[in-house]
Design brief:
With 378 residues, the protein is α/β, with parallel strands linked by helices. It is 41% helix and 13% strand. It contains twelve helices and twelve strands. The protein has helices spanning 12-24, 43-55, 64-78, 93-104, 119-127, 147-152, 175-188, 241-254, 260-269, 273-293, 322-333, 360-375; strands spanning 30-31, 87-90, 110-115, 131-136, 159-163, 191-195, 218-222, 235-238, 310-314, 335-336, 338-339, 351-355. The strands form three sheets. It has a seven-stranded mixed β-sheet, with helices on both faces. A three-stranded antiparallel β-sheet has the order 9-12-11. A two-stranded parallel ribbon has the order 1-10. Helix 1 (12-24) runs parallel beside helix 11 (322-333), helix 2 packs antiparallel against helix 9 (260-269) and helix 10 (273-293) packs parallel to helix 12. Pyridoxal-5'-phosphate (PLP) binds at residues 35, 92-94, 118, 163, 167, 195, 197, 222, 224, 230, 235.
């Protein structure tokens, strides 16, 4: 007898498919449904890749200089010393998450996570035979897990996935709360997996890494967001000493190595802050435009967008079916958004996620189109 597949497809893909179809029919579509930069890799990283392509046939390879450079990032930005050997280079944050979960936990383990949260957490935990324990998180905790949540779980879960800044909300876990989470987890034997893929994309100052408070945490990161290299499929896992061998063994069997070209380009990208900070400045401008415009549309119940490039908006006063609302909005205005169901299977039917990772003129155009649409429904 066939057992039901525990991994659900990404429902937003249906919306995205419709957006593409309308675009093919000649409609002007603004893509605010994607969680990815609309810009490419830094120019110097592309130049490096072009040179490498012309001179190096490529091989299975793990770049020692890149691991050392990533270790340097933790020393410079977070004041923590990470031995380069603890860094496993991966084909993006997504495989790093799989390595983290499969190295630290076993089938049957319970893994806590915030709801709303990134869809892959729930799906990967289930695919690995573990059990997600979703904690309903609302505005009172900035849609984030707290130390109090973790202290109240009985029995304690084997692990917890945290994300700061988070997808779909963009909210962060303040440093004092992160420290409290680390203390509870250490006392209760809960292993932390911290997804820090939106590191560097903050509008409220520096965001702490879990490694500052929990040296045995597994930290997932990559080049898709801040470094604007989504298609290059490059990321990393920082594993603690007791798990790095397990993570490396899984990397070898599941994926072998990260793409050689991307590793060369990624090393250069890490020293492209002036260019990359122009993206952050654009996101900040886009966020300000959105925050100024949303109240007049009646979209006042939003998560504080501390970082990343998202706004998680409660549209419960308009609908109980965010997918239908997103589809109507798309058909009427050409603005594509992500309905909330993927991120929150319980309450997500009354949320939309707007991504403002597009250009500022496109944000302006999107706001000009959607403002009267929402106002007509006030
Ligand atoms: C929270 C979060 N983690 C991980 C990923 C996957 O990142 P990558 O492209 O590095 O696999 C995403 C992508 O949207 C994300 O939002």
């Amino acid at each position: 007898m066939q057992r039901p597949d525990p991994v659900e497809p990404f429902h937003a893909i249906a919306l995205s498919r419709l957006a593409r179809q309308l675009e093919a029919e000649g409609r002007s579509i603004i893509h605010m449904e994607f969680g990815q930069p609309s810009t490419g890799a830094p120019a110097a990283a592309i130049a490096r890749a072009q040179h490498v392509l012309a001179t190096d046939p490529g091989s299975y390879w793990e770049s020692e200089p890149l691991k050392a450079r990533i270790a340097q990032l933790y020393a410079d930005r977070h004041g923590v010393s990470v031995a380069p050997e603890r860094i496993v280079l991966t084909c993006g944050a997504s495989p790093a998450l799989v390595l983290a979960l499969s190295s630290a936990f076993r089938p049957g383990d319970v893994i806590a996570m915030a709801r709303p949260g990134y869809v892959a957490y729930r799906n990967n935990v289930r695919a690995l035979g573990m059990t997600p324990h979703e904690i309903a998180c609302g505005p009172d905790s900035r849609y984030q897990i707290t130390a109090a949540h973790l202290a109240a779980l009985d029995p304690a879960p084997a692990g917890v996935i945290i994300a700061s800044p988070a997808n779909p909300t963009g909210t962060i876990i303040p440093a004092d709360e992160l420290a409290a989470i680390a203390t509870v987890c250490s006392e209760r034997g809960i292993r932390i997996v911290s997804d820090e893929i939106y590191r560097g994309l903050s509008f409220v100052g520096p965001v702490a890494s879990a490694l500052e408070f929990a040296p045995d945490a597994l930290v997932v990161n990559g080049f898709s967001k801040y470094f604007s290299m989504v298609g290059w499929r490059l990321g990393w896992l920082v594993a603690p000493d007791d798990l790095v061998g397990a993570a490396r063994a899984r990397m070898g069997s599941l994926f072998l190595t990260a793409p050689y070209l991307s590793q060369h380009a990624g090393l250069v990208a890490m020293d492209c802050a002036p260019e990359l900070e122009t993206h952050v400045a654009r996101y900040a401008a886009n966020r300000a435009l959105m925050l100024a415009a949303l109240p007049a549309m009646g979209l006042t119940r939003i998560a504080p967008p501390d970082g990343a490039f998202y706004i998680w908006a409660d549209v419960g006063h308009l609908t109980n079916d965010a997918m239908a609302l997103a589809e109507q909005l798309l058909r009427d205005t050409g603005v594509a958004t992500a309905p909330g169901y993927d991120f929150d299977p319980v309450d997500g039917h009354r949320f939309l996620r707007f991504s403002f990772a597009v250009s500022t003129p496109l944000v302006e155009e999107a706001l000009a189109r959607i403002t009267p649409w929402f106002q007509a429904r006030l």
